Amino acid sequence: MTIEFQKEGRIGIIKINGRLDASNARELKDNFVKYLEDTIYFIMDFSELEFIDSTGLGAVISAFKHASEVDGDVYIANLQPKPRMVFDITRAYRIFDVYEDVDTALEAMQEKRNNFHLNLNEMLNIFASQPNQVGAGFFPRD
Amino acid sequence: MLGISEVRLINHETASELEEYFEDGTQWGIKLTYSFAKPEDDLERILAKNRKFCEKEILIIYGYQFIKYNKHSSEYQFLENSKMSSISDGTCYLYYLSEVTDIKEINFDTIPGITSHELGTELINSIHKYYELNMEMISKYRENYVLPGYNNEEGAYLGKNIIDKKSTKYNKPIVLGNNVQIQMNTLIGPNVILGNNVIIDHSTQISDSIIYDRSYIGSELEIKNKIVYRKRIIDPVSEEVMQIVDSFLVSDIQNNLIENSILRILYGIFTCILIIVTTLPYLFLSLLCVIFGMKLTSRKYFMDKLGNTKSLPVFNLPGYNLFKRFFFRFSLDLYPLYFKVLAGKISLVGDHLIAQEANGIKLLMELPVYFPGIYNYPGSMLHNTCHENFINDELEYIHTRSFLFDMRVIIEFWVSRLFSEWRTIVQYLGEECEFDK
Predict the structure, then answer these.
(1) C-beta atoms surrounding B118 within 10 Å
(2) What pTM did the predictor assign?
């Protein structure tokens, strides 16, 4: 297995080539911890992933968990038919957002990030404009 | 239905997989033999090579095809009246030759064809076609065919010696073979065909799928629109075949039975060792703790995804007494639960126990599967059910579990209880929902 990592803006794209199984799942886990220092939004490109077993899947879920812990996210793109079957039968597809290709995943991830910032800004505006009502106690009064 | 007693499978190449699957045909009550033909052999030559076999009346199924029929139809009288006849859809052929037919004189091109509304052939030229025909047969035309097993209610064809649990649910139509074992909380159907000697482990859902003989389907899986042949999962749409290496997912039943039995024994032995090692410390410290006001009560916990509960012994919240600290730091509060493990009521390692009260049912619904154990992955990090990462921890465990991972969970569970800050342990045990981040 080889892991390629590149960044598109603030989103990290992790491309996994070959087999992801018990023999190399640790490598993905360890690498992901390093990538997390750089960004918290990831797309896993599985276009060249030939095989995945339960330990490999565990490593992908572990990555998702680590990203979620810091309010990040992991999307999956280009899931190939064979690995898809493992996602199917183990119901792992319910955990991840799976996109047809990296571009669509990138768009969705960007949109999610924008919405998040938009909501955050809106919330801050509301608090700032009505400090005596909604945000009472949140902002210090003069 | 046609009284066929002998079948010969003739192939162009070695068909070891076919022979391995069909064996000598005993399981279908027929005598099955095998033979070879060269790729250039035409049907006349093939029959000549198997002349002895063809001395009685024969039905020739030429090519990989599905024979459509209706068992209620009376159209098949032609078989009794004709010397030879054929049915074809242009791509595959079905010939009937009566015993008076002299094989040497047959010209297959001139055999009279039959037009029947209810008897026909259809070429099986892909996995997708094979799957589609099976699904069509079970969902729409099951009344037309002789299906295995007994059928005392619409849409259910059941073989002999089916063992299931009260919590097993069926959505018809289904066809279940002989010696099928279905564990608790499973959902079978609709449109499911299970072969003989199949085991479906707990909390698994199967729909629109074909499971071959001697296949083991692991716990907590979702098999939908698939064909499972022992270790292989086949997607009938993409026709991709995936060889599964994790025997706890799907596997050949014989291998899995051995593996499961070994694992069960290992967990049993491990639990016995835990009981032996902790009995004296438990008796000593629990006595001291009881003197200092600790009480053994019971609390209702969910035991499965269906919401069934069971009362399990729990010790009241630890105070700051030194003995109580030792008692909980050495995980001695789990001691009474070891006996529940030996009785098969709960797993040694599994999902975190979810109490019935408060938001228990909500958590239960969020988990794709739930099979509680006294040692658990969130617990090994002192994350209780209120912790923000509880669901993620559980998901990681569900998809990573293995014997080695379980051992790691047990060790980390002990280590975190032994060496973590006492306040964190109290928060965990007391299921407090306010965490210091």
Answers:
(1) 15
(2) 0.69
In B190-317, DSSP assigns E strands to 192-194, 199-200, 205-207, 209-211, 215-217, 222-224, 227-229, 232-234, 241-243, 250-252, 296-302, 309-315
Cα-to-chain-centroid distance, residue B247: 11
Helix A54-69 and helix B390-400, axial crossing angle in degrees, nearest 10: 170
Q: Do B368 and A68 touch (CB under 8 A)?
A: no
Kindly report the nearest CA distance between residue B247 and chain A, in angstroms. 10
ipTM: 0.71
How far apart, in whole angstroms, are the C-alpha atoms of residue B186 and residue B35? 42
Query: Helix A81-89 vs helix A54-69: angle between axes, to the nearest 10 degrees?
Result: 70
**Nearest Cα to Cα of residue B10 among B55, B59, B62, B58:** B62
B226–chain A Cβ distance below 8 A for any pair: yes
Please count the CA atoms within 13 angstroms of the CA of B433 that sit on its side-chain side.
4
Range with the poorest average pLDDT among B271-285, B368-382, B423-437? B423-437
Is the backbone peptide bond immediately before B190 cis, with ω within 30 degrees of 0?
yes
A86 part of contact set with chain B, CB < 8 Å? yes
pLDDT in tens, A54-103: 888 988 998 998 998 898 999 999 999 999 999 999 888 888 999 999 99
* CA-angle at B380, arms to B378 and B383, nearest 5°: 40
Return the structure tokens found at A86. 């493992």
**pLDDT for res B375:** 94
